Fold this protein.
Amino acid sequence: MPDANEVFNIAEEIRLAVAPVFLLTALAALSTLLSQRLARLLDRARATAEADEAAGKARRIGLRRRMRMIQWSVRCSISAAVLTCFVVIAIFATDTLLGDLAVVISTLFIGAMLLVVASLVLLMLDIGSSVSSTEEEFWD
């Protein structure tokens, strides 16, 4: 039977792992949103390719640029989720297997946050590009 100290340590590890799990949920929602944006961009690119017009080439170039931004945003988001999973693993490995991994955990978490920031910045750039192209199409 485990002693009270071991039970307390495991409970503390579970408590520490809960925050990254919430982050994983948010990253899953972000990845879903980004995937939906990418699917809509692909549909627009197909429709633009079918409409062979002079302005279509410029529109396709803009769509391709936006697709790359969203694709990189998805990559950053999923990479952040993977690093967050490693944070959870490292939290449990700290006491049970490997000893103090505070530097590893901090580094992984900082890396995950930087990737989340990159993903959100790319999403913001895509939204700005989308609004700009819509203004050009409809308001000029």
Q: What stands out?
A: Residues 80 and 113 are 7 Å apart (CA to CA).
